[in-house]
Amino acid sequence: QTIYLKDYTPFGFTVESVELTFRLAPHATRVLSKIRFAPNPEATDRTFFLHGEDLRLISARIDGREVNPELSDRGLTCAVPERAFTWEAEVEIDPANNTALEGLYMSSGMYCTQCEAEGFRKITFYPDRPDVMSVFTVRIEGDLPVMLSNGNKAGQGAGWAEWHDPWPKPAYLFALVAGDLVNHPDSFTTGSGRAVELNIWVRPGDLHKCAFGMEALKRSMTWDEEVYGREYDLDIFNIVAVDDFNMGAMENNGLNIFNSSAVLASPETATDANFERIEAIIAHEYFHNWTGNRITCRDWFQLCLKEGLTVFRDAQFTSDVRSAPVKRIGDVMDLRGRQFPEDNGPLSHPVRPESFQEINNFYTATVYEKGAEVIGMLKRLVGEEAYYKAVELYFERHDGDAATIEDWLKVFEDTTGRDLGQFKRWYSQSGTPRLTVEEAWEPGETGAEGVPASRPPSRDLAAEQGASDDSKGSQGAPDQVRGAAREQASGGAAPTGGGTYTLTFRQETRPTPGQEEKLPQVIPIAVGLLGPNGAEVRPTEVLEMTQAEQSFRFTGLATKPVPSILRDFSAPVVLDRSLTSTENAFLLAHDTDPFNRWEAGRNLARATLLDMATGDARPDGDYLDGLTAVLRDRGLDPALRAQMLALPTQSEIAQMQHDRGQTPDPEAIYTAHETLKLRMAEHLQDLLPVLYAENQIEAPYRPDADQASKRDLSTAVLGLLSRIDGGAQAAQQYARADNMTLQLSALAGLLIAGKGEAELEAFQQQWKDDRLVMDKWFGLQVSHAAPARAAEVAERLTRHPDFTLTNPNRFRAVLGALGMNHAGFHHGSGKGYALVADKLIALDAKNPQTTARMCALFQTWRRYDASRQAHARAALERIAATPGLSRDTTEMVTRMLAGA
Ligand code: ARG
Ligand code: ZN
């Protein structure tokens, strides 16, 4: 059954208050609800339908009188009075058998909930939709020492606790936790003087892993006050760590529930990357309090309203507290690695989807990460000041609302006077726009300074067309008008030369499922110009492209410049521009924009990997020399140098070949990757030990950006060194490592060198009681397995006594790692596909949500040759044919097989 955005209608009733009582018992929890309903004046349909799934109805009453509702497996309907009334129901649920981890379930002996998106209907009968908001009062009865729910404490005694959340909220933000928990307490005073009690609740053995999360929470609270003027609004903020959790974390009002991997960290057990991710997720969930909770979504099609914005906000936070360029580059790598394949394959959907069968399948990189990119473009187009003014208006106008993307865009239109009609296509059009660019240089003649440049004679008709579109486009693009005018003026007033440089862009978005025709989108293209000596002759300017083809002119230039295009990755597009390796090497050496400097190195690496994957055994000398120079530059942040050293993923190379109409060969790409790394190690062999030594840290471990930056570089260096020193340095590092970052990178180095058997065993002995560390142990072996062995290694690990289908982290550690082992998963034997299919089929019966998410590993299956496609198709069809397959997985597999 498909649900459509266009079919939205409000619910026939409003909910004035909700009172819930939980009588906890592992297999027979009773949930008593008392809900005050009133006819909704904004609705016409008065059908009283309450969602409800996997509930045993014990009794139902309206205004105290027993009623007999009509039950289906999706919920109930009942005749109700034509005035306000009180609905009371008692249901029984079985949290201990709830392996779907949705609704109320048990994890390591504790009760916990996950209600987003549609889990509340597994707790009691309710209009489980985000536009139905109410004030909740919750009583929990049980013999557990800690019993928590949303909002403020309302009372507690022997065997009970009561909570009251004064802020009206949709049911998806409901939460309950009960268990034998201990807390890491702290406090925070908001700008206006509210004293807030802060707690991180964990199982007793995890108390030493809370300190960092707590600091991150306080930093987030301060940051949101300083940057967005948003203060926390309850007396208490609780975070709970849960081992079995489908996603990263959940922003329930006053009671955030986290996957333990997203909050627990100590230097001994967590890597620098873990610390940074935890900081970002804590910030993300905290920021939801305003962007998500105080202002929520009208319906689930608007998911990006809260997620895109909140991802954007957490990225701003990370850029502020750590390194902005490093964060930006990391995010773009992630976008290209996860969102681009999605946007350009069978699972492609708009940032605001228009239909779905199972909303859990749309918590995607497109909704989240592309959604955040769209906010970033909006901010770039309207400017810093207007952005914060518009967001302020959004809070003012919509606090307490269940809002839409239209509401969001309207505050920007009202603040700036811009028409965002075309910009809105970013929300409705799926697929990644591809941008090509042509340059034209017209040297100035003596005395010609200041004279408006004429078109270059060589332009073809299409380009002329585009050029005339230029003026039309500029009308809708005030920044560009200003920019262009400034260029013209500066060309006349203070001529440094009479040359005119023209960039002509073309944009094209290929058809995606359900969308054959694509219209031009607004693309902010940040451009700077460098002179031939490497100095910047024009600082960054944002060109606002609105047409399918459009030219932008820079006048008054003395010599032909070298452009730096799409600085800071100013739009989520593919910039299809083939530069010579000399041009890339020039930008790698001189670009003042850190992102584009990195991108130039990336371009060189891509080109050389593509060549090597199709038979050329020798890496590009310009690449190796450029890299050497960058690595030697001690003025450059070590983390940035580490990012320069990282190669484009094998999957990215496969995607590039596919885009060019070639069929990628995963084995050949793997070999190219391995060979290039070896050649890099050889080329850099004198420098590597120096860099390694320079980036060792004497001081005690701190998870901050400064230390992490050095460890990033030493880790990247160790990876290369291990290819030429037989693992000697890695063995030494393993022996002395006193933190997980160094221990794990040493173990990885040993595996790279074909060693590490003993260390793997020792690691297991050392960490067998720490689930999160053991996830790393499982994952590392799969990601470092050679292509022909990866499926076998993963299969063996699924038979390890500590492997389990019920813990999503463990499942992802093994099968997710196999999916990310490009040449292993896509191995010609089909063993990778078959194993993943086997395990997904087994998991689906227990946990549809995680199964469906993991199915996406297959999304690129049509890139490969006929034999691989046949194997992948067989695996997908086998999943599809599983009796009783969940709605979640059915939708995913069907989409991936569509058109086949
Ligand atoms: N809103 C959560 C977050 O982004 C994600 C929860 C998603 N849960 C789900 N079952 N789809 O922070
Ligand atoms: Zn979120």
Question: Can you walk me through this structure?
Answer:
- The protein has 900 residues and is an alpha+beta fold.
- It is 42% helix and 20% strand.
- The protein has 29 helices and 31 strands.
- An eight-stranded mixed sheet has the order 6-5-9-3-2-12-15-14, with no helix packed on it. Strands 17-18-19-21-20 form a five-stranded mixed sheet, with helices on one face.
- A hairpin with a 2-residue loop joins β5 (56-62) and β6.
- α18 (705-721) packs parallel to α20, α21 packs antiparallel against α22 and α22 packs antiparallel against α23 (787-798).
- The model is unreliable at 447-495 (pLDDT under 50).
- The structure holds arginine (ARG) and zinc ion.
- The site of zinc ion has 4 residues, from α3.
What are the SSEs and their pairings?
Blueprint: E1 3-4, E2 13-23, E3 29-39, E4 49-51, E5 56-62, E6 65-66, E7 70-71, E8 75-77, E9 85-93, E10 103-107, E11 110-114, E12 134-141, E13 146-149, E14 152-157, E15 160-169, E16 176-179, E17 182-189, E18 195-202, H1 211-228, E19 236-242, E20 249-250, E21 255-259, H2 272-287, E22 296-297, H3 303-321, H4 324-343, E23 355-356, H5 365-382, H6 384-398, E24 402-403, H7 405-416, H8 425-428, E25 434-442, H9 461-475, H10 478-493, E26 499-508, E27 523-530, E28 536-545, E29 549-557, E30 562-565, E31 574-576, H11 581-590, H12 594-613, H13 621-632, H14 638-645, H15 650-659, H16 666-683, H17 687-694, H18 705-721, H19 728-736, H20 740-752, H21 757-767, H22 771-783, H23 787-798, H24 808-820, H25 822-825, H26 831-844, H27 848-855, H28 866-880, H29 887-897
Helix pairs in contact: 1-2, 2-3, 3-4, 3-5, 4-5, 5-6, 6-7, 11-12, 11-13, 12-13, 12-16, 14-18, 15-16, 17-18, 18-20, 19-20, 21-22, 22-23, 22-24, 26-27, 26-28, 27-29, 28-29
Bound molecules: arginine (ARG) and zinc ion.
Cofactor: Zn(2+)
GO biological process, one term: proteolysis
Biased composition (Polar residues): 503-512
